[in-house]
Amino acid sequence: MQFGVFTVSDVTPDPTTGRTPTEAQRIQDVLTIAKHAEQVGLDVFAIGEHHNPPFFSSSPTTTLGYLAGVTETLQLSTSTTLITTNDPVKIAEDFAMLQHVAGGRVDLMLGRGNTGPVYPWFGQDIRQGLNLAVENYALLRKLWDTEVVDWEGHFRTPLQGFTSTPRPLDGVAPFVWHGSIRSPEIAEQAAYYGDGFFHNHIFWPASHTKRMVEFYRTRWEHHGHGPAERAIVGLGGQVFMRRNSQDAVREFRPYFDNAPVYGHGPSLEDFTRETPLTVGSPQQVIERTLGFRDYVGDYQRQLFLIDHAGLPLKTVLEQLDLLGEEVVPVLRREFAALRAPGVPDAPTHASLVAARDAAGTEGVATQEKEVA
Amino acid sequence: MTTRRIVVLTAGLSTPSSTRLLADRLAAAVTAALADRGERTQVQVVELREHARDLADHLVAGFLNTALAPVLESVAAADAVVAVTPIFSASYSGLFKTFVDVLDRDALTGTPVLLAATGGTARHSLALEHAMRPLFAYLRAATVPTAVFAAPEDWGATAVGTTLESRVARAAGELADAVAARPPATRTDLFADVPDFTALLKG
């Protein structure tokens, strides 16, 4: 099972000091957080995509390209890449390039985005969001899986004799996760392609996440990818830890109360009860996180949000230390012990190449024919 | 025989409230009118006041908590809805509208709805027609023709013209007719209507 962190890249005032980091500082801080994630033994770093302040991350592959050069083992991902408003050709090119730079340590999570004006800013119509996700992803797959592409759709200029370069590393496209909080259609899309499904799992009650994941698993089996319990599931989560749980609550409360997304609404206690947010000791985080498995089944990836709402870098690095030293080693052991036989790990470049090779020469033959 | 589920939404703010009083009279009248038509009923009264914080939390944080989510499911699965609000500043109250804002766009499509309101003076009564009815028309609800307004004097001396009691009975009869004419409502499921992906792909 993979453990990691995901960031939304917000530049937010620290409510306890009133100080807002500069964009430049926050960007450096996020790079530090990613490098530290590897140092403490986490597996994955994922960054979001936004096109408006107070977020800085408009260009995730630039960030991840740098991180590829300064890390050794970290899996680099996104949370999410906008399949609706990005040109699928550019996604195909950017992530294939990143694959080569990172030696395959790349996957990506597609999402539709939740900022209305981004659609018109990029020449699209939000009412077409779902149709854009369907058509753009079908093209993206084709660009990666087929050497020479002839294509025509509704939302982008047609392609005749187009080859997306560089070709995916070793001829194998990066693994794709589809993220959605509330649209079963996206879970259906993930199931249809045999891709991963990621639930953000931060803003909604567990009962909702459970239904979304159940639906994805059922549809995965329906579309012929194997038993439902072997579908590839990822979850978000949000934690803040101190050794003493009362210290954690006291320290996190002002950040929670003023958080851009949910501040000035539910109390910390309400939100903790209603959503997977856990504020307390490492042991409490371990117990809560192990409980996720009770309602989504064996799953492959757990990402934590730890760096938002103006939390200072030093505090975030301390959270990473606690995750790496006390939480994740126990979670790895406990989840492994509970896991049903036959449940796969999250796909990596190596496992995808091996699976392709094990499937025989069929794929190679197709590729050669299309080159010819 | 199926039991018909009637959800009564009442947006009064005081306890006790005249809005709740009107809601209870309407609920009793609807139950009696449906019994006359051979239908069993089950009434669920939702005091929106009790969900004021849930609704505010939803506005700010964007998620339905476990107290509010079942209420929305009940409304979407109701055979009929009785909606009662106090009239504030010439329209339904903010609390009432906030609840309606949280409903799924299709939650009330085709559902028979009885509109009712209370107010400080009978001069506010047409707010039912110029504010409440268009709101429910937007939701494609099947509002019954008679909307019931209760002014302070309706609770006391014999009113001139129709009495509150007769208006309640007429509106309840209209709602009961609408319910009895329809098959029992079925629960809608977010996951039931998702098209197979091959259909989505064809766009």
UniProtKB/TrEMBL annotation, chain A:
**Which residue ranges does the record assign to the Luciferase-like domain?**
1-294
Q: Which domain of life is it from?
A: Bacteria
So what EC number does this one have? 1.-.-.-
* Cited Gene3D superfamilies: Luciferase-like domain
Q: State whether keyword Oxidoreductase applies.
A: yes
In this chain, the stretch annotated as Disordered covers: 1-21
Query: Which keywords, in A-to-Z order, does the entry hold?
Result: Monooxygenase, Oxidoreductase
- InterPro entries in UniProt: Bact_Lucif_Oxidored, LLM_FMN-dep_put, Luciferase-like_dom, Luciferase-like_sf
Report whether Lyase shows up as a keyword of the record.
no
Q: One GO molecular function term?
A: oxidoreductase activity
Q: Which NCBIfam families match?
A: LLM_CE1758_fam
Name of this protein = LLM class flavin-dependent oxidoreductase
Organism from which the protein derives = Pseudonocardia spirodelae
UniProtKB/TrEMBL annotation, chain B:
Instruction: Alphabetically list the UniProt keywords.
Output: Flavoprotein, FMN, Oxidoreductase
Return the EC number: 1.-.-.-
Picking any one GO molecular function of the record gives: oxidoreductase activity
Q: Which InterPro entries match?
A: CE1759_FMN_reduct, Flavoprotein-like_sf, FMN_Rdtase-like_dom, NAD(P)H-dep_FMN_reductase
Name of this chain's protein = CE1759 family FMN reductase
Has the keyword Oxidoreductase been applied to this entry? Answer: yes
Residues of the NADPH-dependent FMN reductase-like domain = 5-155
Q: Which organism is it from?
A: Pseudonocardia spirodelae
- Look at the named UniProt entry and state the broad enzyme category this protein falls under: oxidoreductase
